[in-house]
Amino acid sequence: MKTSTFAVSALIVLGLAQSCCAQPFMFEAGRFEAGITEPAARRMDNFTGFVFDFNNATAQDRTPNGMLQQNQVAQNPFLSTLPGDGNGQTIVTMGPCAGNTPHTHPRGSEISFMLYGSIEFGMVEENAGMNRLIFENITQNSTIHVPQGVLHFSHNPNCEPAAFLASFAHKDPGTQTMWGSMMRVPTHILHSATGLPERLISGLKQFPLVTAPGTGGEACLRRCGLSFQTANHLTPLNATDLVP
Ligand SMILES: *[C@@H]1O[C@H](CO)[C@@H](O)[C@H](O)[C@H]1NC(C)=O
Ligand SMILES: *[C@@H]1O[C@H](CO)[C@@H](O)[C@H](O)[C@H]1NC(C)=O
Ligand SMILES: *[C@@H]1O[C@H](CO)[C@@H](O)[C@H](O)[C@H]1NC(C)=O
Ligand SMILES: *[C@@H]1O[C@H](CO)[C@@H](O)[C@H](O)[C@H]1NC(C)=O
Ligand SMILES: *[C@@H]1O[C@H](CO)[C@@H](O)[C@H](O)[C@H]1NC(C)=O
User: Fold this and answer.
1) Which residues lie in coiled coils (predicted)?
2) 18 shares its domain with 125
3) 206 in ligand 1 pocket by Cβ < 6 Å?
4) Which of 47, 70, 165, 179 is most exposed, with minimal Cβ within 10 Å?
5) Which domain holds residue 8?
6) How do residues 30-65 score in pLDDT, each as one tens digit?
């Protein structure tokens, strides 16, 4: 088949596929239009989630060091009515010396806007990017782009609070916290990955997993006159599970 014929055929097939099966959701003139596939849209919830007021949002994670407030599908079913993967948001508020632990979002790229204060933001590239570390100060009014699935983290190195608004190209981007995930890996596997003595690895596994903003950075804590705070949302790992 000649390339041009193939291209035309492909366009026709694509066109047929779209007219046959795609049922895009449309928001128009304050109404849901026909062709909605998502159950939440069928509930016709009168757009109660069309405007999401973060002043009314509860914190999904709150520690003495900061909090995460989400406008994602679990909090706002309206996001299910958006076409494709939809979108979602999290406001991350970080107190002095607070850190957002290293994590990835398995289902959505992130675009984060610095609302106030400033943070050190880091991201580690995938293997094809030579695991390059990107580590920068992000100040008010700057935006950060984090590709889906890429490891990233942040820390407020100042004695004033900071906050950023994370927006995701998914209604439910998910979060995988790296320390907790790594500590679930059997000790002998981590031994083969690192060469560290298994006794040392077992020792590391006794440390609790911080699932919400933690506080750290010894220099920052000294400068701001703070002590290391073990926050109220620490989830102790089950040592019985962890030590083979
Ligand atoms: C949506 O609005 C209609 C008309 O005002 C009302 O009858 C219905 O109960 C509302 N639905 C919800 C889920 O509030
Ligand atoms: C926020 O909460 C206040 C007080 O409960 C309520 O009056 C207001 O309607 C809420 N706003 C939204 C957008 O839900
Ligand atoms: C951020 O700025 C501070 C103050 O200038 C500096 O000490 C620190 O090294 C910077 N951090 C990064 C990641 O560039
Ligand atoms: C950020 O933008 C706002 C609005 O334009 C402005 O008032 C503020 O000074 C900016 N902040 C910085 C640090 O430039
Ligand atoms: C920890 O794991 C062991 C073995 O699987 C189990 O018996 C125990 O109930 C678990 N403890 C907690 C607190 O989950």
Assistant:
1) none
2) no
3) no
4) 47
5) 2-36
6) 344 445 545 545 455 556 678 888 988 888 888 878
